[in-house]
Specification:
The chain has 4 helices and 8 strands; from the N terminus they run ααββαβββββαβ. By secondary structure, the protein is an alpha+beta fold. The longest helix is centred in the first third of the chain and has 50 residues. The relative contact order is 0.12.
């Protein structure tokens, strides 16, 4: 028995073409399953980063309102705080768009001294807050983010 095992191990001549082809096919099947999953994970993490950026803008606007900052403006009939003003007055740092570059536009809507909404316009996506019935501002990945 030991002699047969030695002969089998010594008689190893490499992989046949069929064995090599089977390995390549198996790797192709694994890649076909894994690549879309990884793409979805990356896309979901970018959406989560957009929501985090909107929450950061919201917190900066709250600081500006508490500080009685003179950055609340009237734009197109709405009372808003612009993203550029929050950055210029050091309430928040400059924010990068997770899809690349910077946000082209950002506004925080204010009504009677209270924040009622946030909107960030990125290169590929726009984030808009949803105002709950109790007055809180919430973000949901599916409802708050739309493609440009």
């Amino acid at each position: 028995m030991l002699k047969k095992c030695r002969n089998i191990l010594r008689n190893e001549k490499g992989l046949t073409l069929i064995e090599l082809l089977a390995v390549v096919v198996i790797l192709g099947i694994i890649a076909a399953i894994a690549i879309p999953s990884i793409g979805n994970l990356i896309d979901n993490s970018k959406k989560d980063a957009h929501i985090s950026n909107a929450q950061q803008v919201l917190n900066g606007a709250r600081l500006a309102l508490l500080d009685k900052a003179d950055i609340v403006k009237d734009v197109d009939g709405n009372t808003v705080i612009l993203l550029t003003d929050l950055i210029a007055n050091d309430y928040i740092e400059s924010i990068d768009d997770p899809d690349g570059g910077k946000y082209s536009e950002g506004t925080v809507t204010v009504d009677d001294g209270k924040i009622t909404g946030v909107e960030l316009v990125g290169s590929k996506r726009t984030v808009v807050s949803t105002n709950a019935a109790d007055g809180t501002i919430t973000f949901d990945r599916e409802d708050s983010i739309s493609d440009n």
